[in-house]
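Hi there, hope your week has been kind to you so far. Please have a think about how the structure follows from the sequence. I've dropped the whole record in just underneath, so have a look:

_____
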Amino acid sequence: MAKVYSIHYHHHFNSITSLHQYRPTHKPNLVTHSPTSLALAAVIDRSPEKSQLSTLGICFLNEANEFRSLSSVKLMHAQGIKMGKSWNSDIMVKSLILYYLEFGDFNSAAKIFFFNFSRNYTEWKSFLEEYKRFGGDVQEILEVFSELHGKGVVFDSRILTIVLKICTSAMESWLGVEVHASFIKRGLDIDVYLKCALMNFYGKCWGVESANKVFHEAPILEHDLLWNEAIIVNLRNERSENAFDLFREMQFLSFKANSRTIVKMLQACGKVGTLSEGKQIHGYVLKSAMESNFLICNSLISMYSRNNKLELARKAFDSMTDHSLSSWNSMISSYTALGYVDDAWDLFNKMDSSNIQPDIITWNCLLSGHFIHGSYKEVLTILHKMQNLGFRPNASSISIVLQAVTDLGLLKYGRENHAYILRNGLDFDVYVCTSLIDMYVKNDCLHNAQAVFDNTKNRNIVAWNSLISGYSFKGLFDDTQKLLNQMQEEGVKPDLVTWNGLVSGYSIRGQSKEALDVIHQMKNSGLDPNVISWTSLISGSSQNENYRESLEFFVQMQQEDIRPNSTTMSSLLRTCGGLGLLHNGKEIHCFCLKNGFINDAYVTTALIDMYGKSGNLKCAHEIFRKNANKTLASWNCMIMGFAIYGHGKEAISLFHDMLEAGISPDAITFTALLSACKNSGLVEEGWKYFDSMSADYSIMPTIEHYSCMVDLLGKAGYLDEAWDFIRTMPFKADATIWGALLGSCRIHRNMEYGEIAAQRLFALEPYNSANYFLMMNLFAMSNRWEDVEQLKDLMAKIGVKNGLVWSWIQIDQMVHVFSAEGAPHPDTGEIYFELYHLVSEMKKLGYVPDTSCVYQDIDEAEKEKVLLSHTEKLAITYGLIKTKSRAPIRVIKNTRICSDCHTAAEYMSLVRGREIFLRDGVRFHHFREGKCSCNDYWQ
């Protein structure tokens, strides 16, 4: 026998009680006092037939006012039928249906519904909810209908209308068609309600075209309901244009749109951005005297605000004769959604003078608006304010706050919110739990995220994706795969977000092959990779400095006919900047202009970066100057641009302009500023800004800032001060610190500190060949050739491979690479012939080869020959041969330029009258008329 709920209910059904009002809060248990029995007992107690039942000696209930079994329910049902119409009241039918559902007789419950209860249009949804709640399958209801229909039971149009609605709910497409055929045969197709249900059915189960066909084939179209339903069906299927046409035709034929249709039309105008249609509907509202309808007014406010017409939204609000709380909330939400938070607060304050008290929705609008526009700290301030006024944050409030906490990186505050969630029972809300998981994932607390995930009931796809993305970004791909398998075992199908999280994780880790494999898996699962998928590949490759690979992925993306977005363009610009591909960067700049990406903050910053790294600082500064909405990132990028060109004074001036503009610096700003100081020898200024970080801006210097200071002091010749600075650092010195010191020791030929720095570097980076060559250079300068050979033997012994040294130049879309190893350039003979002539002319002007740059114990003549083979000299010479007479030469080199090549480039620019831009592994050099932009402060 089926179990029945064991709850003591004091609620009794009455003639207007709907089925959905009954909601048990405990699990089913053994029979005691079920709600149905209590309700039924109450009815029997006050029924005029009670004496008759007693006289017949029938006892349906036990002493606890319960049915003993399903058979006793059926016995009571049979007796009731014998009693005739007096038994057939709504309350008795409801009670009987509920009792059959409790005992698991879903078939009988459905039959009673069809015979006794389905006459009321409003009851079918309540019945459906109760049926499902007790474990019934909606298909069984339709099977009962089919069974009764097959036995010749004739149902009227009202029951057929409800059956169609149930078919729509259950997506029973073929049974709905059979019902349609049935009422055509019986001539019921003139019933308006039936026709509306039929349009809704076809719209959901067969497509909007079928629904429109039903509408146009209707024998009688002279009814407002049909037109309204046709418009709603088209809007629901995102056929806004067709809906607008129907609306216009409807007005022409003098049919009246109801408030539901008007609201849906206005919502559509807000979604698709059709302001003119929205204004026409507003005119119809005024003409039809519907402006007093709160729902319509709120929809007008929303429609205008979504079309960025806040002044019209405010006029609609002000024109209302009486404002409901929802109207105030709609207007406040509109202001905050578009970033007008001050106006939102003004309106919020006016609520009090209008005797309207804000509710939790009002506060949530303010929270959401500030979060959307990046005012994360204000979100927390608003939360405290609303709590102080007695408002308890609900699930929506907490979800917003958790997102703000995530972006602020305030893990401690996030944990406090987690505690609040647990205390107030909000951990059953799937959106709250998903926000919690995301907060822990982004704060690098995967074990906490996993714990929240494990305790979350009814996990949605967003929760799965958040955790999978977290493991993927951490490079824990075994755990990621286990989660993916578990997800599929639990019947949750991975979506594009799931796969894209994996693609991004592999790409960021430099595992492009694995990322491409995920793309193929995505395709095999029936999903098409989108712009996010390909942009993840492009961006990941660019971040890992695999620039050529990044461009190859972009080509594949175009072959897949995927349109790039602003993030794609930002990544491509970063790639062009990394490779110094100025021409390609200009093409992407044009593409951004044509496609409206140019106003995107990330694209603008990427353009500044690209032009700066590609040797066109003037263009970078021009873009920066014209940018109306300068972000902190764009300021930082421009300061760093000046820094790598050695324009320290300009970088400092720009920093002060930034402060005057009200932009607060961050740690990256000071990295750029200190880099500018070190590249220009501005020691005093460097100390000043380093000290001001913590004193004036509460920014604690990182190892990167300390490295800049060591480099600055060392290059300026203050090696003792640099050594003391290293010893007093709050961090343990890493390879960047010792590398900066060793580089300075090479410049000033300080063997004592150089050997100390080299020993630390060999321990920290035993396979980095650059460290060994720096020390070899220092030994060679002191003619300590035995030490040079010992270092070479050490490298061979531990397996240190010589790093590949190359320079390249782009001429007419062709990149020409000059490498110290590998096959020589096809035009090598022509290049050396021109180079010999150049050197001869340069020597006449005073050029003397710096043979100290050669780490070999050979005679001076041989050393001069070795210097001629340096890759940057070959690339510059080739550029002079192959480019137009006045065109600048632009060369990229992957390692630091040597002092001889730097001097040679100065003379080349003088002899040939050409500008030469050379970007080495550290900074830019702009040679013109025999001088360099670095003012010889570069080593």
The first strand starts at residue 806 and ends at 811. Strands lie at 806-811, 814-819, 889-893, 916-919, 924-928, 931-932.
